Every structure is written in structure tokens, then in C-alpha cells.
Amino acid sequence: MAKNDKKERQEAIAQILSRSAIDSQDELLHHLSLLGFEPTQATLSRDFREMKVAKTPDAAGNYVYRLPSMQLPPSPRDKHGMVMPFLRQGTLNIEFSGQVAVIKTPPGYARGIACDIESNNIPGIMGAIPADNTLMLLLRPTADKEIILQSLKILFVRS
User: ∠152-114-7 over CA atoms, to 5°?
Assistant: First the structure.
């Protein structure tokens, strides 16, 4: 008999995604079936929305499903950085102009990076609009650029 508990299923999804590079819903459905879950594709899509699962590039450039998992920095500071390099398959650059920030990415990465940014609800960012190798962030009038830079660093800089 298949398991139906939503909380258990979502915990299983989180565990699977944290230890395996899953690149399709069919692959995840297979892993879930091995654990006794038999969700439909529609149920899995709803779970993804609720859990804020996003398909983003991994270190090898393959797109895999990932849960948002970050701690945002605490309170705002006085100084504002204007340009900061980020590492993720090459150098990313961010520049601020008024209530807009422009991020340069490697070709094909802007959409995944925009998804990462939006799924992590970074304070001060209203939305991210991707192209191929550039994305535009729309900033709130009260946005603290230093907090945005720190948050992006947590997401993208590899130690």
C-alpha cells in the first residue's frame, strides 16, 4: 500500500534531493516509489512549489533539482558595496544603478541563478528577470545593497 502522508512525502523529497543529483521528476518519482510513495506528477509539482524546489545548475553545469537552504545575514550595515565578484562556473559580476542591479553570468546560467535568487526571498529584491547571460534584479526602495551582496555571496561563492 502506497504512503499518502504529505509531510512524510515532502521530508522524503528533501532527503532524496539532499543526497542525490536528481535531474527529472520521473527520476524523483522512481526514488519515491522505492520508499513506498506513489505521488502523481501533479502532486510532485505541487510539492515542489510548496517546498520552493528549483532546477539549477550544479558544479558540472547539469541542471538538478535543489531545495533553497540558506541563512540570510542579520541587520543592515551602513556601507554599500557597488561591485562584487561571485563564483559559479566562472566569475559573475553585479552592478547597482538606482533600484536595479545587473548580474553578468556565464552563458545559459541567468535563468537558474534568477530562480535561486527568487526562491531564497532575499530582502530588498522584488524580482529577477533573466536573459541568457545577464539578469536584472528589481530592488525595493528600501533595499540595502550590502545585505543583497552578502546574501548573494552566501548563495554563490564557493569556499
Answer: 90
